[in-house]
Specification:
The chain is α+β, with helices and mostly antiparallel strands and about 1300 residues long. The chain is about 30% helix and about 15% strand. The protein has an eight-stranded mixed sheet, sandwiched between helices. A five-stranded mixed sheet has the order 1-7-8-10-9, covered by helices on one side. The chain has a five-stranded mixed sheet with strand order 3-2-6-4-5. The chain is globular and about 95 Å long. The N terminus is likely disordered.
């Protein structure tokens, strides 16, 4: 205490509370001592970890830890330092330091509702609308919606659409979540009201309930100055006035202490490597930094004003004269980061990020500079100076603070416009952003003064297009001026190359396009209707959808549209995931150390500095493995748990660093030094592998036989299929005209699974072996891996899984890797070890969806019918050919089409990347995309409607399947009827005509439309799931345990429905328990989209066996109730359990406006679950084709897109505005479990339709310039690719 007191002597004029913070969580007061009582807690310690690890509120999740996924959202109430009013905002608890929580009221999902006290209306609506699947993201969505309601009880449906730009969901496709929340708004549609008609509370009642509950909470009204000492000598000051702020600044600068001002702390999500810092100054309660002033003379925003509050101020300014830019600012800033980030992040903080990182494409900086805003920067409480933003960039900000931002007014004929194109519409940094301010004579379009033309994303130092500005002054905005301006812009705006970013050519093209778009917008009607629309933004409507399906009430609860059984606990945070399990005594935390190069050998590993770090316990490497260094136990090729010598890919685990807590482990990881020998340039592209690794690829193909265990294709079966698939089936058919030869290629890219719960495992040494809590889709494989690497019998390894937070195939074989490493660490230390991979390591170390390359050559007649087709189907399994899918991809290449004289050759092409693995619709997604590209190519060549070409090639009853001699289509092809129905319900003909007319009438806006059919091989592979039914005599309730894994697909819900239906008992009497290898030994993988059906089949037979056992007693008792029957059976010592295992053989900028899906689901076991599976699969597929791009360093092989800042799955504003799903009516599946069909994968394959709709639009653009040639269109079709394929150049810009 004396040392701390002496440190504060120079600050004696200010009263500082020392080493204690106070805040409320869910109405309960918490006081945290920060003077070393808990060595883990310091300035870097985050609220999310306090909630989860210190007080057990595990409903708050995390994944990215950078404010990019929304799983960690909480509601925060704080007193505004100027108004004194409470502000209620959502916040990312993964960005909020615990030290910054003093005086806050925090609400977590546990504070809203639960099974004991009842559920909040938000939770109820989400369940009602089927808005949860894996449920890992659900608490974040619930808390964000709660924050919106608390902030604005009169919110509208548009507010809902705007508010979820920071919440990712990989499972649902967003539609049910958004509709659930819109149903709570003040203006829900009649359809939404109808869906809520059976919910007891009316629309207004939830609002009253919510608001009443929150009014009872206490608040800390008096901000205070704080001094908090960190365990490593860091100093944290919280100040409440400018004098106190500058006192602390003077202290730090005079002692040369590296410091950082802390407001929202959101910058750490963008640049986590900044620092290290020893000093922190929290400034959220400094009133002088939060003042705003708005009048006819101008606008002033304090530097501490949050982006959210700035947006509100600009909205007010837009109603006043002179603020011509305010509406554009309002719209543009709503696309900066995400709502929860904008809620905490300050405008000065954003500007300081730009100051420190010139490469940062700050929208805030760009907008402010474009209108000549100035910064008032203080160096003491009484001295300040005004600077332009360009001067600010060159200013040494040591000891200085941005006090305020001052905006001028512009009265007269000023025009302002800003632009942003990014990887996706929301929550993404711009490729290039732009902002223009012109004063123009509205009659002559003469530029009356030097304009302001600003860009970000050209080079780190490029801001103003000075030469272009000078040229345009005094010019009339006509065609000649336009060309002159574009030429000058081309010469001065020369983009630099940035690894992992858009190409310089594309960025220059965007810069020129922005200027052209601005001029078209200014000139308006004077340029004619065909050009005018080019000056307008593409409008985005609100999301909506329609779901059509049959349900037979006579079979309920089977075929009943019920929400998932786990829905309520998922919405309340009560659903337990692996990392939610309470830590064991002396539990350790492990983090992977991975390689940074591919194609090398390990020279030396030096962990000495890491091991000297307090709290680090061990660094576990290959030499510590007592058994086999292999986690691919059921596959043909070895995959090392820890690399021994040869490095196969960048991101390959070298070892596991184990420490007493995760902060220590992560901080010490960087101290492990790995040096390499024989570093060679990696082979990363499938084409390079085909060219340079012919012999290796051929050898690996023969070693694996292209087996596909996930689909029940073993080595011998694969060998037979390869033989048959490569033998053309010759049938002589009538030829219409001469045959035309078509040749082409098509490439499909990789995709990261993006399961919200990253790979994880907890291993606990026990008296009889090892208990393993693994996030796996395959318990048997984890059991064998752990036993193998430890050199112990399999029966000493216990595996338990309750649920996964998403998987999509990533946790079939790759979960073994984490479990093996975790088990070795637990063995070495003889302590429980937890591994929860950080997102970056997960993306580096774990393989993705396999990229494909199709090379095809075919002959067609004048109708488009295929008479001969030769195709090579290459897949890229990564650096180890353990899970190639090209054989299955080749089988699915046939899809819905007659294969006459087809010769398909599945191949592999290894690259120096992480061993790839199965990902939703493995092989089939690529195969369907390949053949549909062929159909598009035929149609383009023959100038026919692609749908017409598809229909002429459709299979008919009796047509053969490729690869399987004698196998034929047994029934009539349903697709012609389904397409006819889709054309009617989807208004295809009228929409197609509208698209054609629209494209003729618009030069710079185009639309496209496409229909893609599919035949999906819905068969049941050799997958086995032991299932146990247990009935309790006291009340007749039933427990079920099975070998499948619940990961969002609704397997437990379907099983419970089948059990209740078969036993003829209420659904409420059935509970499904976690999966274990004790009750379900030797269970196979849950995957291939058939796990639910196969478990249901096993459960049904087990129930039937039980009923057969009870039948004599039932007959003897007459007509007993279920409860009476079970009680009597127990009294007669009848066994009230039944177990069964199923056996094989028993069973540019663009916007997506509308998507119609018709899917044959047979007779759905659970329609609401299946609708969710269909929608989620379609949106995940759209995301694969459009926004998700993996970029590697071409020299090292290291993945560059490893977090939510760089890798961009779709958000709600990216999905189809109108998503309509129809489950084919009156179509029971005679070969399926209870007449059902799987739904999880086949809709994903149909998402390729978006690719061809884009092609349809791009074709129209190319025809504008007389280009009618075929072009290869590979995924992902990012905005950059769209522009390149459109052949757009500035020479085409006219007015």
């Amino acid at each position: 205490m004396g040392a701390e007191q002496s440190q504060l002597e120079k600050l004696k004029d200010t009263d500082f509370q020392q080493n204690r913070i106070t805040f409320f969580i869910n109405g309960k007061e918490y006081n945290v001592q920060t003077d070393g009582c808990d060595p883990e807690i310091g300035p870097q310690y985050l609220l999310v970890d306090y909630l989860r690890d210190k007080i057990g509120l595990t409903g708050t999740k995390y994944m990215c830890r950078q404010g990019g996924c929304g799983a960690c959202m909480v509601t925060v109430r704080a007193i505004h330092p100027v108004s004194g009013q409470k502000e209620v905002r959502s916040a990312n608890s993964c960005l909020l330091p615990l030290f910054a929580c003093d005086g806050l009221e925090i609400t977590t999902v546990e504070g809203l509702g639960n099974k004991r006290t009842g559920y909040n209306p938000i939770q109820q609506r989400l369940v009602k609308f089927g808005g949860t699947q894996c449920g890992f993201c659900t608490p974040g969505f619930v808390m964000n919606m709660h924050s919106v309601i608390q902030d604005n009880p009169r919110f509208t449906t548009s507010d809902v659409e705007y508010s979820f730009d920071g919440n990712l969901c990989r499972c649902t496709g967003y539609r049910p979540i958004i509709e659930a929340f819109k149903s709570l708004s003040t203006n829900p549609s009649e359809e939404l009201k109808l869906q809520c008609s059976d919910i007891e509370d009316a629309i207004v009642c939830p609002m009253k309930t919510l608001m009443a509950k929150e009014n009872s909470m206490e608040v800390l009204n008096v901000p205070r100055n704080l001094y908090l000492g960190g365990t490593s000598g860091e100093q944290w000051f919280k100040v409440t006035s400018l004098p106190a702020l500058f006192d602390v600044l003077e202290r730090f600068t005079s002692s040369r202490t590296a410091y950082r001002l802390v407001a929202g702390n959101t910058g750490t999500g963008v640049f986590p490597g900044d620092g290290p810092y020893q000093g922190f100054i929290e400034i959220n309660d400094v009133p002088e930094l939060h003042y705003t002033s708005l009048d006819q003379m101008g606008l002033v925003l304090g530097g501490g004003v949050t982006i959210t509050n700035a947006i509100s101020t600009f909205d007010k300014a837009s109603q006043m004269e002179g603020f011509v830019y305010a509406k554009e600012f309002y719209d543009h800033l709503r696309r900066v980061a995400a709502l929860a980030v904008r809620n905490r992040g300050s405008i000065a903080g954003n500007l300081m990020l730009k100051h420190a990182h010139r490469e940062f494409r700050s929208d805030v900086f760009l907008l402010f500079e474009s209108v000549k805003a100035t910064l008032r920067i203080g160096s003491s409480p009484t001295f300040y100076k005004d600077y332009t933003l360009l001067e600010f960039l060159e200013l040494d900000m040591t000891g200085k603070v941005i006090l305020s931002v001052h905006f001028p007014t512009y009265k007269g004929s000023y025009y302002f416009r800003s632009f942003k194109v990014s990887k996706r519409y929301q929550h993404a940094e711009a490729y290039v952003n732009g902002a223009f301010l012109f004063k123009i004579d509205p009659r002559t379009f003469t530029v009356l003064e030097r304009p302001s033309i600003c860009y970000g994303g050209i080079t780190p130092d490029f801001v103003h297009a000075n030469a272009t500005e000078e040229f345009l002054e005094g010019q009339t905005l006509d065609g000649v001026t336009l060309k002159g301006a574009l030429l000058r812009l081309k010469h001065e705006a020369v983009p630099n190359f940035m690894p992992g970013e858009a190409s310089p050519e594309y960025r220059l093209g965007l810069a020129q396009s922005y200027l052209y778009k601005f001029i078209l917008g200014v000139r308006g009607n004077s340029v004619g209707n065909r050009l005018k629309s080019g000056g307008e933004d593409i409008p985005r409507g609100n999301n909506k959808g329609k779901q059509i399906f049959d349900t037979d009430k006579s079979k309920w609860p089977l075929n009943q549209p019920v929400p998932k059984l786990e829905s309520f606990p998922q919405t309340s945070g009560e659903a337990e995931y692996i990392n939610d399990i309470r830590a064991e005594l002396d539990e350790l935390f492990g983090v992977f150390v991975v390689t940074t190069v591919a194609n090398a050998t390990i020279k030396f590993i030096d962990a000495s500095q890491a091991l000297m770090t307090p709290g680090v316990v061990a660094f576990v490497t290959a030499k510590d493995i007592p058994g086999n260094n292999n986690h691919a136990v059921f596959l043909t090729q070895q995959e090392e748990i820890f690399v021994e010598s040869r490095v196969r890919y960048a991101g390959q685990p070298v070892g596991l660093l184990v420490a007493t807590d995760k902060y220590t482990a992560f901080n010490a990881r960087s101290k492990v030094i790995v040096t390499y020998d024989n570093v060679r340039k990696p082979v990363l592209d499938i084409r390079d592998s085909i060219r340079t690794r012919t012999k290796l690829n051929e050898r690996k193909k023969e070693e694996t036989n292209l087996a596909f265990p996930c689909r029940g294709i073993n080595g011998q079966t694969a060998k037979d299929l390869r033989t048959n698939i490569s033998s053309p089936q010759t049938t002589n058919e009538e030829v219409n005209g001469e045959l035309i030869t078509i040749t082409g290629e098509f490439f499909t890219h990789a995709q990261y699974h993006f399961h919200m719960e990253t790979q994880n495992c907890i291993c606990i040494p026990t008296e009889d072996g090892m208990e393993v809590l693994s996030g796996t889709q395959h318990m048997d494989s984890v059991q064998a891996t752990v036993a193998g690497c430890l050199g112990v019998p399999n029966n000493s390894v216990s595996v338990r899984v309750r649920r996964l937070g998403g998987a999509f195939g990533a946790k079939i074989s790759k979960a073994n890797h984490i479990a093996g490493a975790c088990a070795v660490a637990a063995h070495v230390t003889n302590k429980p070890v937890r591994v929860q991979m950080d997102l970056g390591s997960n993306m580096h170390a774990i393989g993705k969806r396999l990229p494909y390359l199709f090379k095809y050559n075919l002959k067609v007649d004048s109708t488009g019918k295929i008479h001969q087709l030769d195709a090579s189907v290459y897949c890229n399994p990564g650096s180890v050919a353990n899970e190639p899918t090209s054989l299955y991809g080749a089988l699915c290449f046939q899809s819905a089409y007659r294969a006459n004289n087809w010769n398909l050759k599945p191949e592999v092409a290894l690259t120096d990347t992480a061993p790839n693995t199965y990902c939703r619709s493995p092989g089939s997604a690529q195969g369907v995309a390949g053949i549909e590209t062929v159909m598009e190519h035929i149609a383009y060549t023959l100038k026919k409607d692609p749908l017409e070409v598809r229909q002429v090639n459709f299979m008919k009853k009796g047509d053969p399947f490729v690869g399987v001699p004698g196998a034929k289509l047994p029934l009539d092809n349903l697709l012609p009827g389904m397409i006819a129905e889709l054309k009617v319900n989807g208004e295809y003909d009228s929409r197609k005509q509208f698209v054609e007319v629209f494209n003729q009438n618009n030069r710079w806006k185009k639309r496209g439309i496409s229909i893609v059919p599919q035949r999906y091989p819905n068969y049941y592979p050799d997958l086995r799931f032991p299932t146990l039914i247990s009935v309790y005599h006291v009340d007749g309730t039933v427990n079920v345990s099975h070998g499948g894994i619940e990961m969002g697909q609704g397997i437990n819900t379907k099983v419970a429905q089948v059990v209740a239906y078969t036993l003829q008992i209420p659904l409420e009497k059935v509970l499904v328990k976690p999966s274990t290898n004790l009750i379900s030994p030797n269970a196979t993988i849950t995957g291939a989209s058939v796990g639910s059906e196969l478990v249901c089949s096993s459960a049904r037979v087990a129930c039937e066996q039980l009923l057969e056992r009870l039948a004599p007693l039932r007959k003897q008792l007459g007509n007993p109730s279920w409860e009476q029957l079970i009680a009597a059976a127990n009294g007669r010592e009848l066994l009230l359990t039944s177990q069964y295992q199923h056996a094989q053989g028993e069973l540019v900028s663009y916007d997506i406006i509308r998507c119609d899906v018709i899917k044959d689901c047979g007779q759905s076991i659970s329609p609401l679950v299946d609708i969710g599976q269909i929608e989620g699969a379609v949106v995940m597929g759209f995301s694969w084709w459009l926004t998700e791009e993996l970029i590697y360093d071409q020299n090292t092989g290291e993945l560059l897109t490893t977090d939510t800042w760089q890798y961009k799955p779709m958000l709600p504003a990216d999905i189809p505005e109108d998503l309509r799903v129809t489950m084919l009516r009156n179509a029971p599946n005679p070969f399926g479990v209870l007449s059902s069909k799987s739904t999880g994968e086949s809709p994903f394959n149909m998402s390729v339709s978006v690719l061809f709709a884009l092609r349809n639009a791009i074709d129209s653009v190319r025809r504008e310039i007389g280009n009618y040639s075929w072009y290869q269109m590979d995924g992902p079709v990012t905005r950059e690719v769209v522009r390149r394929l459109c052949l757009t150049s500035s020479e085409q810009f006219v007015v």
